[in-house]
Design brief:
The chain is built from 13 helices and no strands. It is mainly α and 250 residues long. Helix 7 packs antiparallel against helix 8 and helix 11 runs antiparallel to helix 12. The mean pLDDT is 94.
């Protein structure tokens, strides 16, 4: 069906193959092939999702990274594409195709970034996009200005308000403006009480300010939400021990 360019039919056949054993190593090839079909059908989100499944099942196989990078390029997510190709090069450092596409995606990202930085910002989404570029370039002060502009331009029902605040907090974290991190994450949590990024970022800021109980509370809440990595689990354990040594009931 692929050779006939009937990609929708081919995708259905790959779906049937996947359904028989979706978590096997062999299924990685089916996910990769279906990702290629979805790309041909301009279903780039589906293509990227299948590529990610391929990567999870066969982390050292270059195909998953190639498919994911291509899908993200078609979506215009050049930064994500560069990362996907470079991730693939970690276990396949001599793969010429991954190197070629990583270079192409990087060049596209550079051009897209220039356009974003030079255009007149009129919406919150555009301001956020500008902030993302500036953050990636380590221009944290400029990124703070952009995310602040996003908040100013945001409509009352903008679902991204918490994201603007969390992103601004990330900039402040880089500049060690911990009080600002705490304030922005607190505002974000007022909008989205279960936002794990806000909890973890505020916890880190509070830990840096020696507000150990507050940091402990934030990491504990993230743990309850099932979103604590080993690194943060270690921080939580260390804080728990320290607070107990001080006689705190935690």
């Amino acid at each position: 069906w692929v050779t006939r360019r009937e990609f929708d039919v081919a995708a259905e056949w790959y779906s049937q193959a996947i359904s028989k054993d979706p978590n096997s190593t062999n299924a990685a090839a089916y996910y990769s092939n279906r990702a290629a079909c979805y790309a041909e059908l301009s279903e780039y989100d589906l293509s990227a999702a299948d590529a990610e499944m391929c990567i999870q099942l066969r982390p050292t196989w270059e195909k998953g990274y190639f498919r994911k990078g291509k899908a993200l390029m078609f979506k215009g997510d050049y930064a994500g594409a560069v990362k996907a190709f470079n991730d693939g090069l970690v276990s396949n450092p001599d793969n010429a195709e991954l190197k070629q596409y990583a270079a192409e995606a990087a060049a596209m990202r550079t051009e897209a970034d220039k356009e974003i930085l030079n255009r007149r910002v009129t919406t919150a989404a555009e301001a956020k996009e500008k902030g993302n570029v500036l953050f990636r370039d380590a221009n944290y002060e400029g990124a703070i200005e952009a995310y602040t502009q996003a908040l100013q331009l945001a409509t009352p029902d903008d679902p991204q308000k918490a994201t603007y605040l969390i992103n601004r907090a990330a900039c402040s974290m880089q500049l060690r403006l911990y009080e600002n991190v705490d304030a922005d994450c607190t505002k974000a949590l007022a909008l989205e009480p279960t936002n794990v990024k806000a909890l973890l970022r505020r916890g880190l800021a509070r830990e840096a300010m020696d507000k150990e109980f507050g940091a402990y509370q934030d990491f504990s809440e993230a743990q309850k939400l099932g979103a604590l990595s080993p690194e943060y689990s270690s921080r939580l354990a260390r804080l728990r021990k320290h607070l107990r040594d001080q006689g705190r009931d935690v």
